[in-house]
Amino acid sequence: EKPHKCWECGKGFKSGSQLLIHRRSHSGERPYECGECGKGFQTRSNLLKHRGIHGEERPFRCAQCGKGFKQNSALLNHRRSHSEERPHECGECGKSFKWSSHLNIHLRSH
């Protein structure tokens, strides 16, 4: 059961705190800021994950551009920037996007 519903998109959540974090995807709020580079994040856990990029070791390298990453998952996500893959499709109009965040922005236009 997911009693906490987002009034903007209807998505349900088990807890109010999960809904609060989700609401930031609509508002763009990023209250957790990296002290080193100033980048903002919607959750504390994402900020903590991000802080690792300021370290020196980046063993996962992109074969196309040479950019290094601390996590293989970040490299896999980055590779999409070099491809034409657009896995996030709007169910209403069929337009596709490389990134889920771009789809979320687009969905507000309907």
From TrEMBL:
The keyword Metal-binding applies. It comes from the Eukaryota. The keyword Lipid metabolism does not apply. GO terms for molecular function: DNA-binding transcription factor activity; RNA polymerase II cis-regulatory region sequence-specific DNA binding; zinc ion binding. Its main location: nucleus. Residues 4-31, 32-59, 60-87, 88-110 form the C2H2-type domain. Keywords: Metal-binding, Nucleus, Repeat, Transcription, Transcription regulation, Zinc, Zinc-finger. Pfam families: zf-C2H2. It is found in: Nucleus. One of its GO terms (biological process) is regulation of transcription by RNA polymerase II. GO terms for cellular component: nucleus. InterPro entries: Dev/Hematopoietic_TF, Znf_C2H2_sf, Znf_C2H2_type. SUPFAM superfamilies: beta-beta-alpha zinc fingers (SSF57667). Belongs to the krueppel C2H2-type zinc-finger protein family. PANTHER family: B-CELL LYMPHOMA/LEUKEMIA 11, ZINC FINGER PROTEIN 208 ISOFORM X1-RELATED. This is ZNF45 protein.
